[in-house]
Amino acid sequence: MNHFGKYGSNKEIPGIKNAKSIYWNLTPSQLIEDTIKKNQGVFTDKGSLLIETGEFTGRSPKDRFIVCDNITENTVWWGDVNIKFSEENFNKLLEKVNTYLIDKDIYSRDVFACADKSHQLKVRVTTEFTWSNLFANNMFIRPNTEDLKNFTPDWNIICVPGFLADPNLDGTRQHNFAILNFSQKIILIGGTGYTGEIKKSVFSILNYILPQERNVLSMHCSANIGNDGDTAIFFGLSGTGKTTLSSDPNRRLIGDDEHGWSENGVFNFEGGCYAKTIDLDENKEPQIFNAIKWGSLLENVTLFDGTSTPDYTNSSITENTRVSYPIEHIDNFQPNSIGGNPKNIFFLTADAFGVLPPISKLTKEQAMYHFMSGYTAKVAGTEMGITEPTTTFSACFGKAFLPLHPAKYAKLLGEKLEGVNVWLVNTGWTGGSYGVGSRMKLPHTRSMITAALNGELDNVEYTTLPIFNLSIPTTCPNVPNEILNPKSTWSNPNEWESVAQNLAQQFIKNFQQFESETSLEIKEAGPKLEVEI
Q1: First CA to last CA distance, the chain
Q2: 339 close to 496: Cβ distance less than 8 angstroms
Q3: How far apart are alpha carbons 223 and 236 in whole angstroms?
């Protein structure tokens, strides 16, 4: 087996022994050139590389498994999120992957996860495709030459999109899979080219290691920092605006998706950004738009006919069009990707029912309630089969990536909330539900967040929203007063009441799963149905 490129003293890839050639730590230029030569990608007019991920254009949560062994059996939150996989089947599958790679070139690179060096993880990412390796270079923290000299990985990722499992023989659900093995410290991904599986698998292992072993809160959030050093974090599910709202020209970006919160403050897990590009607009999101240049990797975006110009409005391949780029592509990024303890926390929700206010201030107990609820809504067109607004509750705004029970993360958050302002921000609909009302205007949402960050909402008058008992500011700079109370934006307030009661019922039903692990004070902080309007 030949080795090409730069590498350190340790050159082992567990389970992979017979690959034709291994190319180590190739530069982005080399990876891009190889992708073009193999006709697996094209250049856009901005110099970014454009590829298609194939059959899968998003994650496949039902095909993510964790090996059940003496480490995980009694610690993992087993169920529909964390699905058991046997050690025997994992070992057989790894051997099959080794056989599959016998006559193939593979690409391996060494990277870090976690900007805080006291919690840093060394990860070796080995991929079948060069563009998958470019994604790893973009998304993780890039070691320098000195770091690579004695690099021995803590974890290994092996990603082989071309290998298809046999469910009848291999114990998988279908031919694609992403399997986490905490004993062997291997992540095995196959049958899917969607690069997000790589990123989210690392997030999942950090969500196990940091809270369980180091008492560090791992978070599905973006974060930024102001000129005076004040840190803000933004929780939210995909499509709620984490990346967009944290990319603030007046603040430095710590990171756009995954962070830890230790006793020393907030730190990014990653070295890059993975932004949605559907309907990307240069005027509305200039930082993301301008970050798409040489070295960036566009996924499943189409080009205008006869040109090399991306058409970000085209969703013919998928609604989930994406771009990955190193965080340095953002003009005002935080160089060390570390901030202090946050002064403000924003829970972002895209409420498609038009019930929740554009911004409201939460008590500590309400913050805990809404953190564990993790509410947003999906609208028609975002996923197959969805024809009307659908509620989504994802514990801690990241249920799909939580190996531990949500109460573990909620407890850690609760311990840190003293002296922190927590805001619930609706980036969804106003004046009615989806199809009747309109989407919140991004400039208004930005103004409300800016006002919260600047302390301009600290001393204004507040009013209480019925049913949800949320405190709403009656005024906010650069925002029309009439949009601050959602009930008043509906042409028929009684109709708002009916929709609000229905949404409250869904909140209450969802929270029942947490009641045995939650205090009465937190439960009582949720919405109430017996409210006189």
Answers
A1: 74
A2: no
A3: 12
DSSP for 474-508 reads S-BTTB-GGGSSHHHHSSSHHHHHHHHHHHHHHHH
Which position among 132, 222, 238, 445 bears the catalytic label?
238
Compute the distance between CA of residue 9 and CA of residue 161 in angstroms, rounded to an integer: 28
Give the tokens for residue 181: 């093995």
In a 10 Å sphere around its CB, with 0-12 CB exposed, 13-18 middle and 19+ buried, how is residue 435 labelled?
A: exposed
Catalytic residue (one of 64, 109, 200, 446): 200
Is 242 part of the annotated catalytic residue set?
yes
Q: Active-site residue 405, yes or no?
A: no
Proportion of the chain in helix, strand, coil states, percent, rounded to 5: 30, 25, 45
> Tens digits of per-residue pLDDT, 316-364?
999 999 999 999 999 899 999 999 999 999 999 999 999 999 999 999 9
Question: Is 387 part of the annotated catalytic residue set?
Answer: no
Locus of tokens 């809270």? 211
Q: Is 257 a catalytic residue?
A: yes
What is the chain's length? 533
Res. 495: pLDDT tops 80: yes
- Structure tokens of 116? 């805080």
For residue 439, indicate whether it is catalytic: no
pTM here is 0.92
Verify whether residue 130 is a known catalytic residue: no
Q: How far is CA 30 from CA 148, 233, 292, 356, in A?
A: 18, 36, 19, 49
